[in-house]
Specification:
This protein is an all-alpha fold. Helix content is about 75%, strand content about 0%. The protein has a domain of about 100 residues.
Length: about 190
């Protein structure tokens, strides 16, 4: 890349200003050359120009009316996820009431999880201590994920609830694993 000195640049600008031809980048020069080549034709009457503007105006009105009609039609159609449907199903008077309901649901969930963990018939024939160990490992991963999420959004109530529910499930699993380990030696002694 060659660099121009200030004197050389000034010289080129002066030569361009002194040039007899019109510069190529002005519309008058481009239009004159296009007329010479037959690319632009002058019309004898202004009728086409005025009728063209009426066609453009009519097209704009048609697009406006069509857009309004389509907009009104699509708002009447049911959508897969409607913001009004999701908010209309919420019958909470306040955030405190919603949080209270969420706390009760969490407690019910933990109670149901403990019941299923203890009374799941498909697990009775298997080694339950191995199941508890795997469950604890999985819950540890969930705890790590929710702790990371809490660092990003510490005041988010949903993330806090996930964290608390996971910690509750982890504590319950640890208690069941401990009970299993305590009852296993007793059962083994009874077999003698």
């Amino acid at each position: 890349m060659s660099h121009l000195s200030e004197e050389k640049l000034d010289q080129l600008v002066a030569e361009e200003k002194a040039r007899e031809q019109q510069p190529l980048n002005e519309w008058r020069t481009i239009a004159a050359r296009a007329r010479e080549e037959g690319l632009i034709r002058e019309s004898a009457s202004g009728g086409w120009v005025s009728s063209q503007s009426w066609v453009q105006a009519a097209a704009a009105v048609l697009l406006l009316i069509g857009g309004i009609a389509i907009g009104r039609t699509t708002t009447a159609l049911p959508s897969a996820i409607s913001p009004t449907a999701t908010t209309s199903n919420a019958s909470f008077a306040s955030v405190d009431e919603a949080m209270s309901t969420l706390d009760r649901a969490e407690a019910d969930y933990q109670r149901a999880s403990r019941f299923l963990a203890v009374n799941n018939l498909s697990e009775t024939n298997r080694d339950s201590s191995a199941i508890y160990t795997k469950r604890l490992a999985a819950l540890d991963q969930v705890v790590n994920a929710t702790e990371n999420a809490l660092q990003t959004a510490p005041h988010d109530p949903v993330i806090n609830q996930y964290y608390l529910a996971t910690m509750g499930a982890r504590v319950a699993t640890q208690q069941m694993a401990t009970q299993q380990m305590v009852s296993r030696p007793v059962a083994a002694l009874r077999g003698f």
